[in-house]
Amino acid sequence: MLSQNLGGINKQIIKLNSVLDETSNELDVLKSEIEGFDSTLSTASEKIDKSTGTISTSVGAISEASSQLNSLLFPIIASIGIIVALQITIIARRR
């Protein structure tokens, strides 16, 4: 009777060791996947930082281009205003 109980306990211990080995293997796989995910997140973070810097540079360039465009358009619009005023004056003198 005692030997049967010990035999049953021994079988359960062997089965438990087998389950623990499988769990350990699965945890190792999970650990390697997590490490790969960490690497992927680091790469994504670096790319986002680089893209943010590029966008910031682009916004600065657009702002500068807008200022230059305003500098060019202001004299043209002022010249058109002067020409229209002169034409109004000429037309008014003719009447």
Give a structural overview:
- With 95 residues, this protein is an all-alpha fold.
- Helix content is 98%, strand content 0%.
- It contains 1 helix and no strands.
- It has one helix at residues 2-94.
- The radius of gyration is 40 Å and the shape is rod-shaped.
- It starts with a helix and ends with a helix.
- The mean pLDDT is 90.
- Residues 13-40 form a coiled coil.
- Keywords: Coiled coil, Membrane, Transmembrane, Transmembrane helix.
- The chain crosses the membrane at residues 72-92.
| Tally of DSSP helical segments | 1
Report the sheet with the most strands, covering strand number, pairing sense and barrel closure: none
- Straight-line N-to-C gap: 134 Å
Which band does the percent of strand residues land in?
Answer: under 5%
Given helix and strand content, the structural type is: mainly alpha
Shape: rod-shaped
Number of E strands: 0
| Uncertain regions spanning at least 5 consecutive residues | none
In which range does the helix fraction lie? Answer: over 70%
Radius of gyration: 40 Å
State the order of secondary-structure elements, H for helix, E for strand. H
Query: What oligomeric state do the depicted chains represent?
Result: single chain
Q: Give the overall average pLDDT.
A: 90
